[in-house]
Amino acid sequence: MALTSLRQLLDHAAEHGYGMPAFNITNLETLQGVMQAAEAAGSPVILQASQSAMKYVDPILLKHLFAGAIERYPNIPVCVHLDHGSSLAVCTGAMELGFSSVMMDGSLEEDLKTPSSYDYNVGVTRATVRAAHARGVSVEGEIGVLGSLETGTGEKEDGHGIDGVVDKATLLTDPDQAAQFVADTGVDALAVAVGTSHGAYKFSRQPTGDILAMEVIEAIHRKLPQTHLVMHGASTIPTDLQDLINAHGGSIATTFGVPLDEVERGIRSGVRKVNIDTDIRMALTGSMRRYLMENPSSFDIRALNKPGVARVKALCIERFERFGAAGQAGRIKAIPLEQMRQRYAAGILAGPSEFVSLAVNAR
After folding, report:
1. Is 158 among the domain residues?
2. Global pTM?
3. Angle, helices 214-223/260-267, rounded to nearest 10 degrees
4. Counted domains in the chain
5. Domain span at 303
6. Smallest Cα–Cα separation from 265: which of 208, 224, 227?
7. Residues with active-site annotation
8. How does pLDDT run across 135-190, given as a tens digit for each residue?
């Protein structure tokens, strides 16, 4: 299966009423777990890497890891996505590595910690859209700033997150501004702020409407019914993974993530991409802790990692199934990026507000 654009996958998800989990990849083991899950579930897959992950793995090595996944799993449509690109240069660099989608996060300035102005966000995002569409590459933008409605702060992850405390209005995407942003930039997908945040410590209690504003997603969807919405910071932080870590030498304070039923509520209101990173980290590291505690004399790296890969696989299969992506892989015929470029150039895909399905049902 050829490399697939984010736009094609999200168009197909919108047409068939499901959501796509987007899994952050940090190393070979996270990639193995995610791809094994996609194959088992028969689901298309979004593999994404942050700037920090690219630095950790090395951009060239990461490029070939992703290329290897596409070759190894030829029947799985694969989108390779840059998560939280901080500038046009960073996004262009990812495109040159072969990424089929990039996120230009202009909600923060290039330091990834200072909230930006609307004009700044529009300027950098629009420039990225022009550069990306000229290559057939999709673009995700963001309006509003991720952070906790409980504390007014943002959890830092991989160097990304607001400094200090900001007001509630900054942490909630305004539906009217979201509609204007889509019109001003032509993005293919729009990340919105509703009280979710990166990392494990999202909520101090089971989230309700005062700290997880799902009604904002619903209001944005009413304004932009054909725009593909994105939930960041959407890991569930399962209790069993917290217990696994803490029972084997860890110290995770009681915390709450985004409940799966709330994610499913979002999917019913236009959320097509759901970012998941922390759950994978917890599954892998919790399994490592358990193995090392139970096998104190072992120095077998492969044996150390195998339980974690299996746990990541099981977690990802659950997400594919709950979000409705399972079984969809065989219904998508990948459109090459060159053809996507031609469509953009011809104005067939002017933006999400002019939704055109690119799904091709395999017969």
Report:
1. yes
2. 0.93
3. 10
4. 1
5. 6-354
6. 208
7. 83
8. 999 999 999 988 778 776 655 565 556 666 767 777 899 999 999 999 999 999 99
